[in-house]
């Protein structure tokens, strides 16, 4: 009897990084399910609708995935946002939106993933940033703080589940480059290679680590 291919869940599956990540995991032999605000299906891999900042939506969608596809072996959470504003002009609504999209969504997605994957193990992979993992940037207070939170979140998850087979990691890119974009940064395809490495058995020794992927 043939072994079932491992399942990867990619959030933000219709976005630029998410779609590249979905294709990379498909090419590596994974079954893939994407998650995004709107559902779609190109016949290769489905994208299911989710509100990643809403607790009920995340629980409902993950429950449906487990019934239809089984337990994932890796979750890559690419949903996120960036904004720039002078600190003194950053209003509370903008701050809360940034925290919800970047950090609260990471908490909800990873918590549901941990509940599903704790027994079988696997990898939870989040996206931090250079501003969140090294040094906050001017006029990016909310963004820098939210991405620093992602780094600490995966460290805490990794510490709690150490030795269980469930690992948590973050990748911290600088500017992400798409379609051969000529600028200083890191190509999206290179980030996918990092995700695949962290999802492999070789990633076990990097449990809790944040990989800096700053490019040239």
SSE layout and pairing:
Layout: E1 7-11, H1 16-27, E2 31-36, E3 40-41, E4 46-49, H2 55-69, E5 74-77, H3 92-117, E6 122-127, H4 130-133, H5 141-160, E7 166-173, E8 176-177, E9 186-187, H6 188-199, E10 210-213
Shape: globular
CATH superfamily (homologous) name: NAD(P)-binding Rossmann-like Domain
Q: How is the largest sheet built, in terms of strand order?
A: 3-4-2-1-5-6-7-10
Using only C-alpha atoms, the radius of gyration works out to 16 Å
Task: Kindly identify the CATH topology.
Answer: Rossmann fold
Proportion of residues in helical segments: 40-55%
- N→C terminal distance: 46 Å
User: Which parts are unreliable, with pLDDT below 50 for 5 consecutive residues or more?
Assistant: none
Number of distinct helices: 6
Which sequence of SSEs, written as H and E, runs from N to C?
Answer: EHEEEHEHEHHEEEHE
Query: Major beta sheet, specifics?
Result: 8 strands, mixed
Number of strands: 10
CATH architecture: 3-Layer(aba) Sandwich
Overall mean pLDDT stands at: 96
Question: What can you tell me about this protein's structure?
Answer:
With 216 residues, the protein is α/β, with parallel strands linked by helices. Strand 1, helix 1 and strand 2 (31-36) form a beta-alpha-beta unit. The strands form 2 sheets. Strands 3-4-2-1-5-6-7-10 form an 8-stranded mixed β-sheet, with helices on both faces. The chain is built from 6 helices and 10 strands. Helices cover 41% and strands 20% of the residues.
